[in-house]
Amino acid sequence: MSDKLQFSLVSPERELFNGEVDQVDVPGTEGDFGVLPLHAPFMAAIRTGAITVFNDGAETKYMIQGGFADVTPDGLTVLAERATLLEDVDAESLAAEIASAEQALDAAEGDAKLDVAQHLEGLKSLQA
To answer: Which helix (H) or strand (E) holds 70?
Structure first.
């Protein structure tokens, strides 16, 4: 029985992380969730926000936008539409993306408005 979780974070550009960790917290569209070793299998959609990887007392955060998290008996795989190490996110670029999302929110209607609002909330959480 392993006391570590096999975790892989992949974006279209590259694999950002692949290794054993203690825990991963993921921003799901239905709410944030944490995955520990031997977690029950499930699949979830991901919203904009930060994935936090806990390992040996250290935390590493990644900015993520969209994608899916797949928990299997082998571990957790996150297939992200966009992902980068949070410390590499430029504050000015993030502010511009927030402004763009605010404009899109004003123009959106129905379910699209809910999607944009959730995206905007996630972007703002990354600013803090």
So the answer is: strand 58-72
Secondary structure element (H or E) that encloses residue 101, with its range: helix 91-107
C-alpha span between 36 and 50 (Å, rounded): 17
Name the nearest CA neighbour of 64 among 54, 76, 79, 75.
79
pLDDT digits (tens, 9 = 90+) for 30-46: 999 999 999 999 999 99
The yes-or-no verdict on residue 59 having pLDDT over 70 is yes
State the residue for tokens 């996150």. Answer: 78
Helix (H, G, I), strand (E, B) or coil at 115: helix
> What is the length of the chain?
128
The pTM score is 0.83
C-alpha distances in angstroms, 126 versus 26, 92, 108?
13, 12, 22
Domains of the chain: 5-86 (2.60.15.10), 90-127 (no CATH)
